[in-house]
């Protein structure tokens, strides 16, 4: 892409090389066993990937959000589970601490998070609360100098790895009165270290995709943590989270673009070498046009997320662009996965092929980080429609 | 300690490689170009030593077209302190002798304690540059090392030979070449990529090195013909009529494969 600087292009190429040589060879086994490779995570840490968007003062690499998303896209070409581990590790683990943490919280948690030596989860989703974060039921009550947390969370990424050090939990900490006199829940975010008594990490889910990504349900039963574990201002939990959500959509769009690219690469290589009726299937116009369409989707998706990321890095509004990028790129991933598996024929139905994994993995891209229906809602509202 | 590592931009080893039948040169536009892996391993040897020994200066050096600068810069991103790039259209079709004379002049100009190279590039596959350099520089040469230890005044290593291994040792300054038995190179990180932008990158021409590309007083190798690799043929099929084993053995012996 011509909009990349030399350094950004080198970063993308470098992560592609890492993905092809280190990540790809373990992807099938990790997916089959539902096991995130901590060795891969450690190597990503040494490579500085978890520190990409953070300044060098806190141990980061001095890059920006664009740099992080380039790395996510490069990884997702071969393994979406590993890519989402990076996305969540940075966006949901380290970023909230970096943005809203006190000096003490930053000093305690950031060095290990940005180096990939530790991971952290962000506990927002509940059985009754997803994009509708206001429906949160988990509570935190201040008792002396401790928060007492009760409730449950689900689908929490990176919450149960051997190196997970804590989960940041959104919880109702009281009620606030709106200017019109009505009341609303006061939401705050609280850091709950793994291993705190009463905090249980449930068994990993049996997911149909992203199977090597570490995802668990969490329960909190009178979990007591110091009052100082409040992250950011009390009552600002929801507002802080919304910012993370908009950014997260760009990262998911980059991930989806990587998936769409991975499907294209696989389909192109296969169609050139697979012979049917004496000729490579790529020489059939239908296959050639299918692959051309896949390329067009990848390009469109990439343009969309690059623009959203550039806007975010420049401090410009990017809500609509992030939603559009997430919408078109997740469609691109899903459609390309479908085309690629079709081109692979019977082999595309075998889990050992990368395209079969992309087929299962890509569905969540239309669901997570706000469903695509939610993206349409966001775009419609940005257009002034009462959606 | 100053270590010069020779690196080279080559057509992607794993990609499709093409020869330009007009010039006999590799067609760089035919596919992706990469830093030759063996050169990356040589750089890793130097960087690993530098990591453990303060005061080690690692310089990457390359002779190649101007367009190779981006690839050479990867060496800086990996951790080399500076780069020297000899880029001169007059050197475009240089044979091994001219390449060695040019590199030797650049190495002498930079000053060095140790030169580390790969044993064989994946494109030209001449395999004689390290020995030629040592000869021209008047220093010892330890070739094809599968391990390298760098000490204050000497370099030693192991060379695998048929039926055994040799331990070799040379006083510095010296030239050593390494094999693929040495570890993969590190990946550059983003901090390294950003830092590479600010590192010294010197571009030299033949004239800067007092090298005369058309010097007819020295020996030259002249390419007299260039041809495309013949297409792969179907191979020999042996149907077993009871004597399959014998015929396979005969085939292997005939083609000197056993």
Automatic annotation (TrEMBL), chain A:
Residues 5-116 form the Acyl-CoA dehydrogenase/oxidase N-terminal domain. Its cofactor is FAD. Signal peptide: none annotated. Residues 122-223 form the Acyl-CoA oxidase/dehydrogenase middle domain. It comes from the Bacteria. Residues 235-383 form the Acyl-CoA dehydrogenase/oxidase C-terminal domain. SUPFAM superfamilies: Acyl-CoA dehydrogenase C-terminal domain-like, Acyl-CoA dehydrogenase NM domain-like. GO terms for molecular function: acyl-CoA dehydrogenase activity; flavin adenine dinucleotide binding. InterPro entries: Acyl-CoA_DH_CS (IPR006089), Acyl-CoA_Oxase/DH_mid-dom (IPR006091), Acyl-CoA_Oxase/DH_mid-dom_sf (IPR046373), AcylCo_DH-like_C (IPR036250), AcylCo_DH/oxidase_C (IPR009075), AcylCoA_DH/ox_N (IPR013786), AcylCoA_DH/ox_N_sf (IPR037069), AcylCoA_DH/oxidase_NM_dom_sf (IPR009100). Keywords: FAD, Flavoprotein, Oxidoreductase. Belongs to the acyl-CoA dehydrogenase family. This is Acyl-CoA dehydrogenase. It comes from Agromyces binzhouensis.
TrEMBL record, chain B:
Residues 23-213 form the Electron transfer flavoprotein alpha/beta-subunit N-terminal domain. Its cofactor is FAD. InterPro entries: ETF_a/b_N, ETF_b, ETF_beta_N, Rossmann-like_a/b/a_fold. It comes from the Bacteria. Pfam families: ETF. Keywords: Electron transport, Transport. One of its GO terms (molecular function) is electron transfer activity. Transmembrane segments: none annotated. One of its GO terms (cellular component) is cytosol. Heterodimer of an alpha and a beta subunit. The electron transfer flavoprotein serves as a specific electron acceptor for other dehydrogenases. It transfers the electrons to the main respiratory chain via ETF-ubiquinone oxidoreductase (ETF dehydrogenase). Belongs to the ETF beta-subunit/FixA family. This is Electron transfer flavoprotein subunit beta. It comes from Agromyces binzhouensis. The lineage of its organism: Bacteria, Bacillati, Actinomycetota, Actinomycetes, Micrococcales.
């Amino acid at each position: 892409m011509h909009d990349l600087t030399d350094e950004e292009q080198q970063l993308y190429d470098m992560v592609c090389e890492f993905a092809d040589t280190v990540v790809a060879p373990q992807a099938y086994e990790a997916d089959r066993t539902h096991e995130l490779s901590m060795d891969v995570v450690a190597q990503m840490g040494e490579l500085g990937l978890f520190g990409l968007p953070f300044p060098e003062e806190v141990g980061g690499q001095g890059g920006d959000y664009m740099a992080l998303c380039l790395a996510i896209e490069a990884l997702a070409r071969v393994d979406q589970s590993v890519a989402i581990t990076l996305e969540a590790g940075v966006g949901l683990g380290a970023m909230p601490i970096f943005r809203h943490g006190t000096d003490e919280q930053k000093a305690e948690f950031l060095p290990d998070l940005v180096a990939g030596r530790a991971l952290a989860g962000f506990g927002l989703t509940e059985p009754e609360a997803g994009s509708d974060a206001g429906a949160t039921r988990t509570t935190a009550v201040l008792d002396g100098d401790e928060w007492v947390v009760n409730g449950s969370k689900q689908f929490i990424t990176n919450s149960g790895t051997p190196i997970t050090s804590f989960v940041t939990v959104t919880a109702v900490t009281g009620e606030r009165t709106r200017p019109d006199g009505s009341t609303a829940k006061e939401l705050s975010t609280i850091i709950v270290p793994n291993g705190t008594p009463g905090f249980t990490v449930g068994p990993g889910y049996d997911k149909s995709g992203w199977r090597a990504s570490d995802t668990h349900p969490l329960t909190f039963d009178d979990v007591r943590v110091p009052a100082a574990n409040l992250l950011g201002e009390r009552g600002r939990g929801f507002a802080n989270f919304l910012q993370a959500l908009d950014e997260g959509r760009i990262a998911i769009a980059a991930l989806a673009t990587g998936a769409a690219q991975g499907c294209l690469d696989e389909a192109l290589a296969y169609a050139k070498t697979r012979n049917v009726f004496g000729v490579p299937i790529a020489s059939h116009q239908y296959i050639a046009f299918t692959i051309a369409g896949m390329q067009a989707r990848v390009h469109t998706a990439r343009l969309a997320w690059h623009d959203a990321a550039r806007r975010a890095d420049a401090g410009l509004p990017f809500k609509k662009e992030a939603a559009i990028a997430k919408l078109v790129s997740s469609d691109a991933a899903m459609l390309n996965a479908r085309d690629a598996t079709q081109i692979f024929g019977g082999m595309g139905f075998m889990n050992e092929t990368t395209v079969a994994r992309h087929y299962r993995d890509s569905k969540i891209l239309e669901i997570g980080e706000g469903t695509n229906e939610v993206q349409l809602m966001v775009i419609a509202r940005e257009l002034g429609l009462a959606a | 300690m100053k270590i010069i590592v020779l690196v080279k931009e080559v057509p992607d080893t794993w990609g499709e490689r093409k020869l330009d039948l007009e010039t006999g040169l590799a067609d760089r536009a035919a596919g992706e170009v990469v830093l030759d892996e063996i050169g990356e391993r040589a750089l890793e040897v130097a960087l690993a030593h530098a990591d453990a020994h303060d005061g080690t200066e690692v310089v990457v050096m390359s002779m190649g077209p101007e367009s190779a600068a981006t690839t050479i810069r990867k060496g800086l991103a990996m951790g080399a302190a500076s780069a020297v790039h000899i880029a001169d259209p007059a050197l475009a079709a240089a044979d091994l002798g001219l390449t060695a004379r040019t590199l030797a002049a650049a190495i002498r100009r930079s000053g060095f304690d140790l030169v580390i190279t790969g044993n064989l590039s994946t494109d030209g596959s001449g395999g004689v540059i390290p020995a030629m350099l040592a000869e021209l520089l008047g220093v010892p040469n330890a070739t094809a090392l599968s391990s390298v230890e760098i000490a204050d005044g000497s370099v030693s290593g192991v060379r695998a030979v048929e039926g055994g291994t040799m331990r070799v040792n040379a006083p510095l300054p010296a030239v050593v070449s390494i094999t693929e038995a040495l570890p993969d190179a590190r990946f550059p990180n983003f901090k390294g990529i950003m830092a590479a932008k600010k590192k010294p990158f010197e571009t030299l021409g033949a004239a800067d090195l007092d090298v005369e590309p058309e010097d007819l007083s020295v020996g030259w190798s002249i390419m007299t013909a260039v041809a495309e690799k013949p297409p792969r043929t179907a191979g020999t099929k042996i149907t077993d009529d009871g004597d399959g084993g014998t015929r396979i053995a005969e085939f292997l012996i005939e083609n000197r494969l056993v």
